[in-house]
Write a structure and sequence with these properties.
alpha/beta, Aspartate Aminotransferase, domain 1, Aspartate Aminotransferase, domain 2, 2 domains, eight-stranded mixed β-sheet, four-stranded antiparallel β-sheet, about 15% strand
């Protein structure tokens, strides 16, 4: 009766069941996984509501790429970061998840493949499978810092590979693509007619500068590339449902992609008029929220560095984003660490296998967590590690 796309196990995993039981019991829970900015104790400017007081909200005037004014607001966002992006290269979506769906429709046929980083956010398999696309992974390797394993990436290519996905910075490793890596990736793609897709939702949250870092693929002039972002992370407004795709690369490839993307978008017309009318104000006011997130994540990261320095738990290098990855002693599996922390210490973390880490034992925490909760949760983790 139902599509074969739904091949996943719908049963909750052990950690989810343990969390449900803990919540039924009531009492204290230190959640070190909070990634929803609207639930992280941030202060939102009340003027955000004023951005929706616009009489145009009452008219429906659909445009496949999105309202010109909203696309100009996105173009200014890039201009303020030193990158010129013409509004004609921008296509609005309801989210980056929808942007992925559009790009998979644009670039692939059923049975084609896309390469995604490992470790990384687990959403790709769901998004690709919904489009009848196969996900293959390429490794990120850690040698004091994260880098793309180019040879491993090449080994993952087949004659059905249509796109290489970059998460820049990666979630959860917090690693950025470097210029030398982009040169290699561009060379690899050019000879195989493969597109680059760069998910840049965390790009504004770097911990320090690095001249070798690639901040956006919107500047790309070779081949075909797509840069994606949205209000969810850059303005801390996931509920507003506005993302976008910037088409980059060679002019003839860009034009063909633009025409087809607008055809796809015209079929779905998913972006609501209110958020498009409010886009200029939301991007402006979102900078206030972004600054709070920067301060929060920087404080938590510094605390983690100091607190873990003399402990059995190691903090892996992180360049940006909202996550911190901890390496814990391999006396337990990641699942056992997470379950014991929850049951005995009332601390919730995520095991590394949620993000497809290849080896044990890693735990992932959110730097967006309120500082008091983050600090106490980390102290309990350290005490548990010291007693192991």
């Amino acid at each position: 009766m139902f599509s074969s796309r739904f091949r996943w196990d719908f049963q909750p995993n052990r950690l989810t069941r343990a969390l449900e039981e803990k919540r039924r019991e009531g009492g204290e829970l230190l959640d070190l996984t909070e990634s929803n900015p609207t639930r992280a104790g941030l202060s939102y400017p009340p003027e955000i509501l004023d951005a929706f007081r616009d009489e145009r909200l009452l008219r429906y005037e659909p445009s496949p790429a999105g309202m010109r004014e909203a696309r100009e607001a996105v173009a200014r966002y890039y201009f303020d970061r030193g990158c010129t992006v013409e509004p004609e290269r921008i296509l609005l979506t309801a989210s980056t998840s929808e942007a992925y769906a559009y790009l998979f429709k644009l670039l692939t046929d059923p049975g084609d493949q896309v390469l995604v980083p490992r470790p990384s956010y687990p959403l790709f398999e769901f998004l690709a499978t919904m489009e009848s696309v196969e996900v293959r992974s390429y490794p990120l390797r850690y040698l004091a810092h994260w880098e793309i394993d180019i040879e491993g990436l090449i080994d993952g290519l087949t004659d059905r590979t249509r796109a290489i996905i970059l998460v820049n910075p990666n979630n959860p490793t917090g690693s950025y693509v470097k210029r030398a890596e982009l040169v290699e990736l561009t060379r690899i793609c050019a000879g195989r007619e493969i597109a680059l897709i760069s998910d840049e939702v965390f790009a504004d949250y770097a911990f320090g500068a690095d001249a070798e870092r690639v901040v956006t693929l919107a500047r790309q002039t070779d081949g075909l590339a797509f840069s994606m972002s949205g209000l969810s992370k850059i303005a801390g407004l996931p509920q507003m449902k506005l993302g976008w795709i910037v088409t980059a690369g060679a002019a003839h490839h860009r034009q063909q992609a633009k025409e087809r993307l607008e055809w796809i978008a015209d079929t779905y017309l998913s972006v609501g008029t209110p958020v498009q009318c409010a886009a200029t104000g939301l991007l402006t006011l979102g900078a206030i929220v972004q600054q709070q997130i920067r301060e929060r994540t920087a404080w938590n990261l510094q605390f983690a560095r100091e607190a873990l320095a003399a402990s059995p738990v190691s903090l892996l290098d992180v360049e940006g984003g909202w996550c911190a990855t901890l390496q814990v002693p391999r006396l337990r599996t990641e699942e056992e660490w997470a379950l014991e922390l929850l049951r005995s210490c009332n601390v919730l973390v995520q095991p590394g296998f949620f993000y497809d880490f290849e080896s044990e034992a890693f735990l992932v925490t959110s730097l967006l967590t309120t500082p008091a909760v983050f600090a106490e949760g980390l102290k309990r983790l350290i005490r548990m590690a010291n007693c192991t």
